[in-house]
Design goal:
Elements lengths: L1 H20 L29 E6 L4 E6 L2 E7 L7 E4 L8 E3 L9 H7 L18 H11 L7 E3 L2 E2 L1 H15 L9 H4 L44 H11 L9 H4 L1 H13 L9 H6 L6 H5 L6 H9 L10 H16 L10 H4 L16
Antiparallel strand pairs: 1-2, 2-3, 3-4, 5-6, 6-7
Helix pairs in contact: 3-8, 4-12, 6-8
């Protein structure tokens, strides 16, 4: 009898584990801490490069650029008022943030990227919905956390990051006009603001205590970088202070919110102790030995790995992956960034990368 009870308990425990694992898209990570501001208050004198500081408070390191040379300063543990000067340590990247997305992304560039989004040639669900100002307003919410404003070791990643983010958004919301040329297809992004023909309400009852599904509400994909499932709507709504759990339709009604939710997805890790798409793109992530063995490296390719896992990555040169890459390179050109800098296959693709999470955990 005791043996039967033991077997029954083991079986029940195994079932509970399986049930708890059945939350494939729950984002358990959290937004990064606010990014330290770059110290640009000292103006350079005639003929002098001046001084710029780049701080990383989590490492207690301040990277100071003086006369074109980078020098690290650490607080003196015996006397915190005095810094200890050291040499550049590449293993501890200096990170700081400065400026705003509107400083380098202009209205005409945005319109060129998405020139077909309101076209009469296709039946788009979101004609007149997406606009430049909505994206600028949404991005301002996340600029303090480094979205589009990050310097890493004096290298500005903002322009490339915005191009990367918009490439994902465009690919996920494209009208997919079948008669368009390859170049024209890159102009059809932001045609939709919600999933087409969804037959699922994406309600996971395993989260009924923390994020209970509202009666009659469906949590299908919405936004520029669509989110799915009740718990993701709950998490995003909590961070943005909007009741998306009871009113997911708000995303379809407000383009700024639709962009904010997308940037939230970009900035938030899927699981604890994993990087976000933002982290892997700017290089604010230290690959482990397992990451190296899995051929995961910082860059645009890793953003696809974080967001879609083995639905896109580790599958060789598949069409889905190449579509994301084509949009990214096209947007870099529009924003005046040299595409050759981004064309290294190691950082551009994820063809050979092992997924951070299996498709069980990857977003649609």
């Amino acid at each position: 009898m005791e043996y039967k009870r033991s077997v029954l308990f083991t079986i029940l425990a195994f079932i509970v584990v399986l049930v708890n694992c059945n939350g494939p898209y729950n984002r358990q990570g959290s937004l990064p801490k606010p990014c330290p501001l770059c110290n640009t208050n000292r103006r350079p004198g005639p003929g002098s490069p001046g001084t710029q500081s780049c701080c990383d408070s989590s490492q207690g390191v301040e990277l100071v650029v003086q006369g074109g040379r980078d020098v690290y300063y650490r607080p003196n543990m015996q006397d915190p008022k005095h810094a200890v000067r050291g040499t550049t340590d590449p293993s501890k990247p200096g990170r700081c943030c400065h400026g705003a997305v509107r400083d380098y992304l202009k209205t005409d560039q945005f319109e060129n990227m998405f020139s077909k989004r309101n076209s009469l040639e296709v039946e788009a669900h979101a004609k007149g919905f997406w606009d430049y100002q909505s994206f600028i307003t949404a991005s301002a919410h996340y600029q303090p956390y480094g979205f589009g404003t990050t310097y890493m070791n004096r290298t500005f990643f903002g322009t490339k990051e915005v191009a990367a983010f918009l490439a994902h958004a465009a690919t996920k919301t494209s009208c997919e006009n079948k008669v368009a040329t390859n170049m024209e297809k890159l102009e059809w992004g932001l045609c939709y603001n919600k999933e087409k023909n969804s037959n699922s309400n994406y309600c996971d009852e395993h989260y009924k205590k923390s994020y209970p599904c509202a009666p009659g509400v469906a949590y299908y994909g919405r936004g520029a970088l669509p989110i799915y499932w009740n718990y993701n709507y709950g998490e995003a709504g909590k961070d943005l202070k909007v009741d998306l759990l009871n009113h997911p339709e708000y995303i379809e009604q407000n383009s700024t919110l639709a962009f904010q939710v997308a940037i939230w997805r970009w900035m938030t890790p899927i699981k604890k102790h994993q990087p976000s798409a933002h982290d892997v793109f700017i290089g604010y992530w230290t690959p482990t030995k397992n990451d190296t063995l899995a051929k995961r490296v910082s860059g645009f390719g890793a953003t696809m790995n974080v967001l879609y896992g083995d639905l896109v990555c580790g599958q060789g040169d598949n069409e889905s992956m190449k579509n994301f890459i084509s949009h990214y390179l096209y947007y870099l050109g529009i924003m005046g960034v040299d595409q050759e800098e981004a064309k290294s296959p190691e950082v551009l693709t994820c063809a050979d990368q092992v997924a951070f999470n299996p498709s069980f955990f990857s977003n649609p």
